[in-house]
Amino acid sequence: MTLGRAFSVAVRGLDGLIVEIEADITSGLPGVHLVGLPDAALQESRDRVRAAITNSGQRWPAARLTLALSPATLPKMGSVYDLALAAAVLCADQQAPWFRLEKTVLLGELALDGRVRPVHGVLPAVLAAKKGGWAAAVVPVDNLAEASLVDGIDVYGVATLGQFHGWLEGAARLAGRVTTAAPTAEPIADLAEVVGQAQARFAVEVAAAGSHHLMLTGPPGIGKTMLAQRLPGLLPALTESESLEVTAIHSVAGLLSGSAPLITRPPFIAPHHSSSVAALVGGGSGMARPGAVSRAHRGVLFLDECAEIRVSALEALRTPLEDGEIRLARRDGVACYPARFQLVMAANPCPCAPADPRDCTCRSLEKRRYLGRLSGPLLDRVDLRVQMHPVRAGAFSAADGESTAAVRSRVAQARAAAAQRWSPHGFHTNAEVSGALLRRRFRLSATAMAPLRTALDRGLLSIRGANRALRVAWTLSDLAGRTSPGRDEVSAALSFRQGGAGR
């Protein structure tokens, strides 16, 4: 009996678990037996690994071969284990316990001719290996830039199985860590291009300053999509830890650039209004993949024509809006993905949506049913609601509005003030602050709270809505350079929740 051993990583959500792969060669009828809860893609790896080994000039054992993946109770999925399986087989057949296989994780899919193909989820896998104290990771050369984002662990890129075998024997070298190219700076859409709509522009500024959710309602062509697309340009660049987290999500989804994988700007995700529940929150057979809410993590999720989206998909947003994460239970386990995003919704006021409201042909019942697809609990989580109206001819001759750069400067100052105030309590933006902290440690004066108490007494506001109004009031105060909100800021925050606000 001869035994070979190699190691790989199983990725579940953004978490990784080390998988030990053993190859046992015993006397008996030639055959390959794969154990350890492999899925269909992994079952097929038997043929890929055999062809890759023989086509790389190595011998395939003419005996009974058992391949075991441990822990045995963890479902294994995908082709990421191919390289580790081949290494274990070569180790067992040649009876060579290569020292380089110790404390090294192997990731990669094998082609039949021995080429090592790229795989998804390399970044979270390498992060998990580093966290577990592993010394090195060998990845497909096409994934090397992605793996090089992780410091504190040696990373190598391999192109073929033959090259990898030579490296194990000390006769060849693998590509080492590379310096990733800077992300291509995409042109930022300028707020100055938006004609008129001062009220909605200010709402976008408030949303950016406090990380608040926003809903824009108005007829087609009025600028709802333009304003939503300009929100990411007002947000600060991602921190190093945020960049790695966002990049890891896109790595699992298979959406990274090969040469410049690091995502440094807040993502802007705009799914089609016909998207399913799985497309929005994540899903799929086996282990769930990240959906739009996770790909928009630390960025903006824009739902255009939100009244056209199926109700079940809209209601699925409630949990990630409240918790900042999404847990997806599937047959092969539970995947948890972060989903702390800013939601921007845009809707027409009615099905016919004429440019002039006086030309509307919809009956009142049709209007109520149309926007009635947006449930009360969902809208209660939206801090800013703005009704947009058609611009007049004078708006075309008026001077351009403020540029994105000017507004971004104010937003940065407001966010800095909020971070300084909340960071001792574990928060960074006004939208994250707990209601208990707002009501106890940062209680406003009776005069400032009067409009809020009146709304609560009249049943116009829930407790959750009151907390969200207070968060908006703090953002308005930060934008105005004040130390705390007064009656005017609280009143303005309430008017935002009622569908209109003035600056």
From TrEMBL:
Residues 210-392 form the AAA+ ATPase domain. Gene3D superfamilies: 3.30.230.10, P-loop containing nucleotide triphosphate hydrolases. It holds the Pfam family Mg_chelatase_C. GO terms for molecular function: ATP binding. Belongs to the Mg-chelatase subunits D/I family. ComM subfamily. This is AAA+ ATPase domain-containing protein. It comes from Mycolicibacter nonchromogenicus (Mycobacterium nonchromogenicum). The lineage of its organism: Bacteria, Bacillati, Actinomycetota, Actinomycetes, Mycobacteriales.
